[in-house]
Specification:
The protein has about 190 residues and is an alpha+beta fold. It has one domain: Aminopeptidase (3-Layer(aba) Sandwich), CATH 3.40.630. An 8-stranded mixed beta sheet has the order 1-2-3-4-5-7-6-8, sandwiched between helices. The longest helix has 19 residues. It is globular, with a radius of gyration of 16 Å.
Length: about 190
């Protein structure tokens, strides 16, 4: 599998053709969120290919001078799921994040699922992250009414305290959302 940074043209294709299929409507940010934060250098995406076939994509955010990355979106294309690509992507992300103290990951909270099918899907996602060595945090976040369980990807023997990570996530959200979406779309608790 090889990785490539998303260009502006590719961003529009992913935004129109893939994000609406792979994520619930409440999780989708405006195209201006992507464009503005890409232009400011605080948001980036990667495409993952096997041979010349797109199999997955990610989007990450950060704050200038910050110690953590935020994995905002990770999606493996439906026809490519179950082939181990998600695990390979987390390994690639772990390498990219070596310059940071860790990567904060959002996964939809199990206890806010609307039905059993949604609950099972959320449980599988969180189990996937745990199997890949991520640590579940007690701190949670909410964006546009969607509650997230937070997990941490780090190689540090002693990760920072949750309070410190929470402050970093607050700074990332302020960087990404306050500039584009407004202050009232997110909270950390």
């Amino acid at each position: 599998m090889h990785q490539q940074k998303i260009t502006k043209d590719q961003l529009h294709t992913i935004y129109q053709d893939h994000l609406p299929r792979d994520f619930i409507m409440a999780e989708l940010k405006s195209i201006s969120f992507f464009e503005d934060n890409f232009a400011r250098g605080v948001y980036f995406g990667d495409l993952f290919y096997v041979e010349d076939q797109l199999v997955a994509y990610t989007f990450c955010g950060k704050r200038p001078g910050g110690n953590y990355l935020l994995l905002d979106y990770l999606a493996v294309l439906p026809q490519e799921r179950g082939k181990g690509y998600g695990t390979e992507i987390l390994a690639a992300l772990r390498k990219e994040a070596a310059a940071y103290d860790g990567v904060i990951v959002e996964a939809e909270a199990v206890d806010t699922a609307k039905n059993e099918k949604e609950k099972n899907l959320r449980q599988r996602r969180i189990a996937f992250y745990r199997r890949n060595g991520l640590m579940e945090m007690k701190t949670r976040s909410e964006i546009n009414g969607v509650t997230f369980t937070l997990l941490l990807l780090t190689d540090k023997e002693k990760p920072a305290e949750e309070e410190t990570i929470g402050r970093e996530l607050t700074a990332i959200y302020q960087t990404l959302y306050n500039h584009t979406e407004g202050k009232d779309v997110w909270r950390i608790f």
